[in-house]
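hey so i finally got around to running the thing on that chain from the lab meeting. sorry it took forever, my laptop kept dying and i had to restart like 3 times. anyway pasting the input first so we r on the same page abt which one it is
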Amino acid sequence: MTFTGRIRTYLIIIALLPPMVIMSVVYFRTVKQLESSYQQKAYSKLQGYQQFDKRLRAGIRGQITGVLDSPTWRKAILRLRSGKRPAIEDGSLPPTLDFFEITDSMQTVVWSYRRPGLIGESVDWKIRQADTNGYIESVEYDRLGPHGAVGFYIPIDSSLAVYAG
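ok and heres what got predicted. didnt touch it at all, straight out
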């Protein structure tokens, strides 16, 4: 290669190399920042979902507590203890509760508000988490398998408990 050819090659390299290095550095930094931004957005969405889930579970737990504190349900539990079928009219449960069963100490359903076919059946609940009030959070199960429901198993006394969600 002649001297002129080498000078041309060096000039081309000098002209192209710095912009290529700068472009590659900018490209890789941008990709890294985008990935970091996607991770932060995903984390914030996950935090939002966890807060929503926590509020939902607290709301359901509060509704169940409210039902159990009502005079109608206290009378119903007294009737159950005496061996009589409780007389509960429609509308005494919040519409957000999908199921509400009273079970005995062997977890057999003795009374059900919305699923009368479960009376006499055993509730197969799996403990997810227990809290300080005696509420046991579970995943809803029946003969068909697990359902996407939040269930709470709440002991009333040594012989009866409420399974609702």
